[in-house]
Every structure is written in structure tokens, then in C-alpha cells.
Amino acid sequence: MFAYIIGSQNPVVGKAYAYEISSGSLSIFGENTKYEWYLFKKQKNGSWRDITGTPKLGRSVTYTFHEPVLANEFELRVFETKSGSITGTGSAKKQIAKLDIVPSQSKTAQIDKVVLLKRGSKDVNKANYRDTLFAQAFCTAMFDQEVEFQLWEDDASGGGHNAVINKNNHHTRTYKARVNEKGIAEVKIPLSGDERILRQIANKYLMKGDKSEGKNHEFYITASYHGKIQKASQVNVDVANPDYKKDSQKSQPKVSARKPEQKKKTPQPQKPQPRQDTYKKPLPNNKPSTGKNKQSDKDGRIIDVSFKNRAGKNFTTTPKFGETIIVEILTKNVIGKHYNLRVWEDDTIGEHDLLYEGIHKITNDKQLVTFALTKDRQQIGEIGNDPRDTDSGEYRAEWTDHQELFAEIAFADISKESTRLTVEILEEYKSPEYKKSAAVVRNLPKGKTANCGGKFCIDKKSPSSELIREINIRLAGFGGNVPTDKFTDRTEKMIKQFQRDYMKVPETGKVCGNVLKAIDEFQNKYSIDFTELKCKCKKCTGFGDGSNKGKYLKGNLEAHHKYEYPGIHRSLLSSIRSVKFYLAKDGRYSFNKVNSGYRCRFHDEYLKKPTTNHMGKALDLHFNDKTGRTKKTSDMEIIRKDIFNKYLGAKWDWKSGQTNIFNLESTGIGATTWVHYDVREFDEIYLKDIFFAKSLNALNEKNIVTLALELGFTNTCSCMGGGTSSGKLAPVNNVVSKRVDPKTLKASDKLIEFIKDWEKLYNKAYNDSKDYCTIGYGHLIKKKKCEDITIPDEFKNGITEAEATKLFKEDLKVFEKAVQRDVTVKLYQREFDALVDILFNCGAYFLSSGKAPKLYKNLLDEKYEDAAKEFLDIENKKRREQNYQIFINGNYDS
Q1: Which CATH architecture has domain 558-678?
Q2: If 708 and its partner were Cys, which of 24, 42, 713, 754 is the partner (CB 3.0–4.6 Å)?
Q3: Could you tell me the pTM of the whole model?
């Protein structure tokens, strides 16, 4: 039967619409025929997902679409079922009609109201520069649209804001957020991070008639949509002015905002500098710090910050450039908070030189950050960032054999306390000529770091670190391990197993650059499908809602803990990669899927039989034999014994003493056609929320080589110590050297070999994957099939390898120039290479034509890692994954 659906294809959100099945003639609809209505939603990959739930029945039905589905594509499908047939058989039910639907706006998209406040305070309009403000835009018909916020300082008198007076009083930084289903876009604005700039803006101009800025700086927020300011907050937030001095006549009069012509010159941007009110104390007589006179956080949140040697102990000898030291941070009640760590070289004249800055997360009350005293950092301390500026570094001869370092800590999201401490390296320079110098670091003679011979390897003698914790998590499937930041005996065995089985190198049990690179390679090789992991209840977000922490089905054992953890445990997820690896190594079975991942309290299985393992701590896996999925109990027994027990160190049935390991559910208890394993016997310290993940990005986090470099393990990364599974690690200089203007770069020899390897040599004309006539190393002859054109004479008889290489290099110049034309920010060589290859593969105007807008915008905003992640959404996924590796790690292995 031919039929069609009558109804609106562009229903307005929020309104009910009727849809009816028709054939143009009522007579063909039999009384014994039933009609079922199904709704499908189009996915990003172009496939359709059934979101029906319970099908609607009848010839006429109604549907209401809501704002969160705006701009999505849907498809209504009607199925006919004949009375008397068996539902579900091939002939019982068939599709007879469908209708494409795209919901439309019910109202004009607009921003209705904007507010700026200090949340959680008695007076939400009072703050200081240690606080975090919140900006909100209340919107109509703008679900999932981006709103851009900008902070302004108000110098207009009276109520409201004067755009003319305040035109120069805005911060250049913008804050972006998307509108949620409630119509609200919200951003956090930590004032401490931009305090210097904000104070400079506020103090630069005055309200007409004022002689000073006064006790407070008055800030408001504007919200823009599609580049146009639509609304501003009406009530200012008064931020205490640290520069205010009552009745002070010493300050110079400031320029009126109404008379900008009085300004003699525009102040030049300042380099970042440590706060003036932080405590700096030289340490006398070569003795370690006693801890006295240190400035600590008023609420006791920061207890102490100090430099330690690589073993985590106080210095007994003067450290030298070329070594690695530790920044030890002792805190209280701030686990989970993020902080900014800066390490400076202290200059007697001019400005201090910033050697390191990075955002870190507090995971323990005692936090250890490894800091490498590299040659690059030594040079910054010697000459500063600008050799032409005599105030940018130390130049006098008596200062050339030592440098003075100190560290600062800043919490961006904690208010009402002093958030920075200054610390000196623990020992003075011992030369009698410089007895008054503070703690120093000797300059290292020029030279390169060779194979370290174990000197820079991470092993059982190494202090605790977040890098060690990540290694323990990512290699948890090699013998089993817990997410500790300590290098334990289990860690050593785990590394040896990884070296032996995956890397195929001698077993040292130590971590150098080769191991770190191989961990990244291993992680990228075996991916995890998070759609299989989500709860199927259709009520929660896929990973529970955080309910019932501290509540138990019975007793107080973790096995009965009803807490819905925020995701699946990362150690468990990482071990799936090892399961896949060892299955392939064994050869008898292969991985099928995660059959049961997260199950919250609304899941059907929980409602049938309440158990809590699957609330983030357990997985049920299915497997294949040579013919397809196997349900044989005997196969499950073999897989448990020969894979999970042998390689992951898992044991059966949660018996006494089986703590801090993976536990298996045996066939006798119930796992007959699947393998169940879990982490429920982990100690509480290893079941913190931070060890659970809801997405692949949260599981993978940063590339581990990048993390190691950020934490200061530069020498560790540069030592290859025995080879890797697939090649050499890219030189560390690719990661830590300065970015340069892309106009000074050309495609590297590594990239040329990489592209040649991908494109392969074709001596005669052929049709590529797009049916374009091509020859040599991807040289385009014409955007038509070869058989549809006349092959040019120069290619009729084919070309030699030398001719193909010459053509290729000429072609490459086009894409080098395209990157130089369209990318206006500085790049590393590896980043330049990755972009050249993308354009070589996708077209010279791929970036500027808007085909990858997020990639291009993130790149121009200097959000390099975010830009690289966008590679993975571009066609030719396998090659884009390799472009990502080049861009981030300098890994050209193809």
C-alpha cells in the first residue's frame, strides 16, 4: 500500500501538532489494520536512532517538540500491522510511510536579562580580587547557542552605563557559554587570574569630578550574541580597590575618561610578575628552612610550599641546572581544587623572569610537582625573554654562575584568603664571594642530554607524583594496580610486563621516554566505546546522579554501597585495552562488547535484584569465538583463567584478602555466558570521585608525554633507554622549544616521508578515493575520472620516482603557503607539519573556507590542544588521528 503522512514538517517548539496517515482514499484502510508510529533522531554520523519509547497507535496522533531539540532532524515512521499476524515476524509489520521533521523557533532569539554577582555571599554585589564572580544571561529561543560575556569597569556617574565614557574600560578577555535547556548561559570569572589587568583598567580612567577611583572598582558584564552586544547587567559588583589609601595625596591624578586626548602615551603591556605582597625570605648560612616566618593562607588551606630534591628530601648540596627538583605543596581541605603554580628566577634589577606556569589539581594534602632545571630555563634566567631589553635578565658578570629561584601558588577559585606563598631553594651558593646570595642553582655547561643510563628514569626511588598515578591507571591491565601516586613493587612488575609483552624490549621496570611514548601509543590503539557503558534506564544521564553516598543496602561494606559514582572507574576502563591486547595475542577469542556497564537505581536489573557493583565499579563483557559471539560457559572459564587471571591478576569471588585487585564473578555465582569483573574491593582512597570517567576524554585525559613535560620530566622524556614498540620518540625540542611565525617554517623531512608513506607512489595515472585523476604522490591531474579526460602528454607514459618527488615538492609549496596565509599565530614545527598535511589532504582553503570552524577558531585563539582535538572529526579519520599525534607529540610514525 502506498501511503503518506499529513502534518507539519516544521512544528513550532512547545506546541502540539496532529499527524495523520493517509493514502488519498479512505477505502483502503481496513478495519483489522493497526498503525504504529515511531520517532527517529538523526545522529552526527548521519545514522538514525530510534527514540520512540512506547509507539503511538492509530491513524491520527499528536506530537509536541520542545526547545532542547531545536535544529535537530527527526523522522516519523509509520508501520502497518495486519490483524491476526504474529507481531515481530517478517510479514507482520512493515513500514508504509515516513516524514522528515525539523522543529522551528517559537519566538525570536534574544537575550532578555544579564546579571553579575558573587554567588553564596551575604551581599552578592560586594567582592575582592580573590573572588570568583558569576555572569548569567537569561535567553529566549536560544537553546545550545553561544553567548559571549565581557567584563567592564564603570566610570559613568549615576545609574546605568554610558557606552561613550566606558568605551575603553573593558577587559580584552571574553568568556563563552552555551545556553542550557532552561534558557540560561553561565560563566565563572575568577578575578585573581587577571587582577593586574583589571586594576590597570580600573585605575586608568576616573568618573567625571572624581579625584581618585575610591574604595571600590565597579564592574558590570555585557552579553553578546552573533558578535553584537544585546544586554548589560544593571547592578554593578563593587570590588575592593587594593590601591585605595584614605586621604592619600601621593597618587598622581588620573586621566578623565571624558578627555582621552590628555593621555601622553599608551601604557605598554606588562609581563606577568609575582605579587608585591607575597613573602620573600632569603635562607641564611646554608641551612635548610626552619619553616618560621612563612606566610600561610588565612584559613589554613595552604600550609607550606618548599623545594625538595628528587628524592623528596631537603637539599644537602646545591642543585645544578640539568637536574630535576620537586615543588612540595602542603594543603588542607582543598582536594579537587585547581591552582596555578609559577616558578620564577629572582632578578636583583629589572623584572623577575617566569620560568614555568601551569594549572594543576590538588589530589592529596601533600602535592608533589616535579620541576626540571632545563637549559632553556637557565637561559631565560640569564638573559630574560628579550635579550635587547637590559631589564629582562641578569647581565653582570658576578651573577653568571648562579640564579635564585622562588615559587608562587595561586588558587583561582578560592576567596578570602592569601593565595600565594614564596619559597627559596634550600641552600645558598657556597662561593665565599657571594655569601649574601639567596638559594641558588649552578649553571650547567653547554651540552646535550644523552641516554640517561637510569639517571632520569622513574623507579621505586622516585618521589610520589601525578605522573606515576597516571601510569598506574593507564597500565592497570598489566598485572592489576590501584591509582596510587607511589611507585610500588606492583608498579615495577606492571612496567616489566608492559615492556615484555607490548613493547618487546628488555624488562627494566623503570620508566623513561620510551615507556611513556609506548603508553600513549597503546592508549590510542585500543579505544573504548562509551555508548556501551551508559545506563539503559532512560531516566539518568547515563551514569547515575550522585545519589546515596554513604548509604548501604546492608551493613557498611563497599559491596553494598548505594552511591551512584560519577562514571566508570578509570582503572577498570583502562584494563579493557589490555583485555583486547591479550585476546589478540592469545588468538582463540576476540572482544565482542561491554554488555552491561553502568546500572543506576532505576535500571531494570537493579529493580529486579538490587546490587551496587554496576554503579561505576563493574563491567560485564561478551566475547567472540571464530564463528561469532560465544555463550559457552566453558569459554568464559578459559577467558577468566587465561586472560583475566593470568595477565590482569584478577581473582575469583571477593574472598578474604583479595583487596585492591580486580575480582571476577565465577560461573557458580552467576556469570555463565559473560565475564564480570570489578573494583569493589579497592580501598576507599582509590574509589574517590576523581578516579571515575563519563567520557573518552575524561578517561584518556592528556597525552602522557605532554603531562610528563608539563610536570617537568623533560630529561625523562628525552631518554629512550631501550627502544619502543614502534620507533623513536620525537625530540623533546619539538615540544618545549618556542613557537615561531609560520612564515619562517617549511614542511620538515619527516612530514615529506610521512605523506609519501600515506600517498604511496603511483607511476601511472589512477583514480583516487574521490574518483579524481591522480599520479605520483597524490598529484592531482584533474577533478574527473582518468577515463573521462585526455591524459596530458607528460603523464601518458607514466613518470619516474624522481619526477614524482619533484611534482610532490612543488605541490607541497601550495599547502605550506596556505598555512602561512591563514594561520596568524605562532606554531611549533610539528604543528605546522600537521596542518600542512590536513590541507594537502583536504584542500588549500580548508581552514579559511569555514569547513572546520571550531578547529580554525581554537587555533587562532591559541587553544592548541582544543584545535588538535577537532582533527578527529574531519574525514579520513585514521589519517586525522595520525595528524593529531604529529601536532601534539611530534610522532610521525605512519
Answers
A1: 2-Layer Sandwich (3.30)
A2: 713
A3: 0.42
